[in-house]
Amino acid sequence: MTKEISGKYEAVIGLEIHVQLSTKSKLFCGDDAGFGGDPNTHVSAITLAHPGTLPKLNKKAVEYAIKLGLACNCKINQYNFFARKNYFYPDLPKGWQTSQHTHPICLGGIIPIKTENGKRDVQMHHIHLEEDAGKSIHDIYDDYSCVDLNRAGTPLVEIVSEPDMHSADEAWQYVNEIRKLVRWIDVSDGNMEEGSLRCDANVSIRLKGEIKLGTRVEVKNLNSTRNIKKAIDYEIERMIKLVESGGKVQQQTRSFDASTDTTFSIRDKEEANDYRYFPEPDLAPLHLSDEYIDALKAALPALPSELIEKYQKDFSLSEYDAEQLCAEKEIADYFESVLSYSKNYKAVANWINGPVRSYINDNKISFKELSLSPNQLADLIQLIDEGKINFSVASSHIFPELLKDKNASAFDIATNKNLLQTSNDDELQTWIDQAINKMPDKVKEYQKGKKGLIGLFVGEVKKLSKGKADPKKVTELLQKKLDN
Ligand code: ADP
Ligand code: MG
C-alpha cells in the first residue's frame, strides 16, 4: 500500500486490558488464586457454583483496584456495585460472570505516553472489577475438551480506554505503561506469558479530519506486546485495503494468528444487550469513604512519572537517564538507596544504568538479587571522585571483585591489587621517562609546536602505569619536562 493511500486515513484504537490482581485468594471465596496448580485443585463449592453457595468479596482486590485507579488519576467511584453478565460457557459454572457494568469502581483516568509529536495523555474510560473464567483446553484429546476451573473466580481488573490511540506504536506504549504501573504499585505481576495481563484491541479507521468513528473490529486475547502491535498493524492495513477497494468494514470479533501475523474473524459482534446485565443480588453495593480512599492514596509509592520529573529537576539528570532509572521500581529503589551514601547523582545514575545493569541483564537476575550493596557502590564512586582510582580501573578491576563479596571494600581491593592512583612524583617520573624515550620523533614534533601531542604522552603513561597514574599530575609533569 502506498503512503499516499494510507495517509488518507486515521486509525482509531481503544484497548480493553485485563489484569489479574495478585491477591492470595479469589475474588469471592478463599480458594487459592495463584497461577498453575494441578487442574481443578483450587476449587471449592463456591468456585464450582454449587447451588446455595454465596459470594463474599475479597477486600484486598477492592484495595488493589482503587490503588490502580489512583495511580492512573481516575475518579474513584465511591458508590459502585457488581452486576451479572449472563452467558453460557463450559468454563463458567455459574452461567454468569460477576462483573461491574453501570457503576464501575474507577472512572476516567489517563496514561501518559510518548509519541512522535511529544508527550500525550491517553484517556481512559473506566476500570472495573470482575472475576476470571476457567480454562477450556482443547488440545489434549482429539474427541473432547477439558475444563480447568483453577482460574475461575480469580480477581481481574478490566481497564478500558477511550478510543484515543492512533497507531500500533501508541497502543504498544500504553500497554507497556500499564504493565509497568501495575508492577510498580504491586497489584499484579503483569506477566503476559502467564496471562496476568491480556489485551483486546478495538480498531477502526476513518478518513483524516472525520469526527465520526468508523466501524470497529475487536481482536481478542492478545498475549504479548509484539502480538498487540502486529495485530493492530495488520488490521489497519486490512481495513484500508478493504475500504479502498469499495468494501465496508463489518463489526466483528477477530483473533490473531501469531504464526502468520494475521487476524481472522471468529464471530460477528453480538448485540450489546445480549448479556442481560442486572445488579448482583448476592453482593451489597460498595460505599467507599473518603478516609478509606485517602489512606490508600497515602500508602502509594512515588509513581514513575513523578520520579522521572524529580530526578531531572532535583538531580539534573537527563530525561533518558531518569527514565532508565524508573524502568522498574526495583531500579529506582536501588538508586534511592545508593543516594543515602552518595550525593554524586550523575555518577550513581551512570553506574546503575551502565555496569550494574549490564551485570543484571547478563546474569538474568533482578535488582533485588544483586549482591552489591548500595554502600559498596557509593564507596567505589567516592574513590573515583577523590582521584584515588579512575573509572576504567573501577569498572574492570574492582567492580567484579565487589560483586563476589558483599563485605569487600573498594578501597581494600584497590590497595591489595595495587591499583590506587599515584601522584608520587618519583614513580610518575619513571613512567614519563619511559614514555618519552619510546617516542623521540613525537617529542621533536611536540617541541616544534604540535602541542596537541601531549594527549598521546599522557595516554602512554596511563598505559604504562596500568591506570594508576593521576592524569592531571602527569600532564603537569610532562609539560614541565617537554617544555624545557
Ligand atoms: P464492548 O464492551 O462491547 O467491547 P465498548 O463500547 O465498551 O464495547 O468499547 C470497548 C472498547 O472499544 C473501548 O476501549 C473503546 O474505546 C473502544 N472503541 C469503541 N468504539 C471504537 C471505534 N469505533 N474504534 C476503535 N475503538 C473503539
Ligand atoms: Mg469488549
Structure description:
The structure is a single chain. With 484 residues, the chain is of the alpha+beta class. The chain has 3 domains: 3-291, no CATH class; 302-416, no CATH class; 425-482, Arc Repressor Mutant, subunit A. The protein is built from 16 helices and 17 strands. It has helices spanning 3-6, 59-71, 168-184, 225-244, 290-299, 304-315, 319-325, 329-339, 345-362, 374-385, 391-404, 410-416, 425-438, 440-447, 454-464, 471-483; strands spanning 9-20, 75-76, 79-80, 83-86, 96-99, 106-107, 110-115, 118-131, 135-137, 146-148, 155-161, 197-207, 217-222, 252-257, 262-268, 278-279, 286-287. The strands form 4 sheets. Strands 1, 2, 6, 7, 8, 11, 12, 13, 14 and 15 form a 10-stranded mixed beta sheet that branches. A 3-stranded antiparallel beta sheet has the order 5-4-16, with no helix packed on it. It has a two-stranded antiparallel sheet with strand order 3-17. Strand 14 and strand 15 (262-268) form a beta hairpin. It is elongated, with a radius of gyration of 30 Å. The chain binds adenosine-5'-diphosphate and magnesium ion. Adenosine-5'-diphosphate binds at residues 12-16, 160-163, 202-204, 213-214, 216, 218, 272.
